[in-house]
Amino acid sequence: MQEQDSSSVQGRVDADGRLVSADPALADLHARAGGEPGGPLAVPQLAQLARLVRRLSIPVSRAVLAADGEDDLDLWVRAKPDGASVELAIAGWTHRSAAFAPMPAPHHDREADFLRAEADWTWETDAALRLSSLSAAGMAALSGEASGPVLGDALTRLFVLEDGREAGPPLLEALANQAGFEDQYVVLRGSTRRFRLAGVPILGSGGALTGFRGGGFAIADEPTLTPAAPKPANDGPSAFAQRLETALRGPIHRIVATAEQIREQEDGPVRADYNGYAGDIANAGRHLLGLIEDLVDLEAVERADLEVEQETLDMADLARRAGGLLSVRADDKDMRIEQPDIAEKLEAIGDFKRSLQVLVNLVGNAVRYGPESSTVRVSIEARGAHVAAIVADQGRGIAPENHELVFAKFERLGTREPGSGLGLYISRRLARAMGGDILIESGADKGARFVFTLPAK
């Protein structure tokens, strides 16, 4: 049973999030949600949209599903910035029984695109807040007198989270509510530097939280700190590569965000073929962003003065971290990643960050090219003066004559999946810089076995 009111309802939210004016229907909804006249907007979905529009300073239109007593209320909301305030125009007002209410369409991808376009650097985590992706600009921003971030580190390990204005840390509140957050101020552990983090949730096909995606912002009034001594390892991108990433990343993120806005028809319906074109543009833009990251890494590994850390690391721990970071992607294909047992340990000498980067690439490739409902096995073993991590899949395998070809720069044996053809080239360069290597032990139609070796401890 549905009731629909086609009239448009107006409202205004000020810079502090207060509903300062509203037509009767919105004022009544605000009151039923526990709000007071002139108080903070009490409908969470509308309040979150107003905050987003105020921060981005652009109009946003979207469908919103809000609770109204025992029923749900489908709304079509257009939010437009007006100075420090946000004007709301709400149409639809379709009441339906909560038991039969459909899940709202996800809009988090587009919010993430806007966030990443505006941010100084970008990041992504899994559901346990472990870092699964960090842009080169982020790596540079978070390195210095602290040891620097590594994939697999929890955000709570990297940062001290500050409380929000009204409650505890916004990030932890967002984790509990599977919602986005905007103003999580943090202090980099081991330093006095502060940043602002903002992010949106990544939801799986069943609606479960699988992680967060967002951006980091430098705080302008914080003093710039100069490290006491230069970092000895010269393993990062050059100033040119960082400028290249900065110059291209922002514009491409904006292209992706605009394409997603068209595809989601937030400003009204569009022709079906235009909708498809917009989706193609967004996917191509995301592919270009991945290529930029690969090119920055490529520039770093091909430098004559490339240096890597020589530290004791546990190959079993690295394998478990890599498997954990790729578990969500594997779940999407109903795949299983077998990892070394928690009791297993095998020490090696190498650069922790770079070794984890190599294993994430190898396990990621196994998941990407493996068939659905198959298993990727990550195991470890001692091999004389070296230790090895072995990534085996159940895919098509790689013919012996192509074992070296796959490591060539820009080489891709197939085009079923997107990619730059740089991942294996970069990974082998890094492995050899650490005194190890990457080899293939497989024949055609038997699955692929990639063996990553490092010197034994």
From TrEMBL:
Keywords from the named record: Kinase, Transferase, Two-component regulatory system
Domain Histidine kinase, chain residue ranges per copy: 243-457
Matching SUPFAM superfamilies: ATPase domain of HSP90 chaperone/DNA topoisomerase II/histidine kinase
PROSITE patterns: HIS_KIN
A biological process from GO: phosphorelay signal transduction system
Catalysis performed (reactions): ATP + protein L-histidine = ADP + protein N-phospho-L-histidine
Protein name: histidine kinase
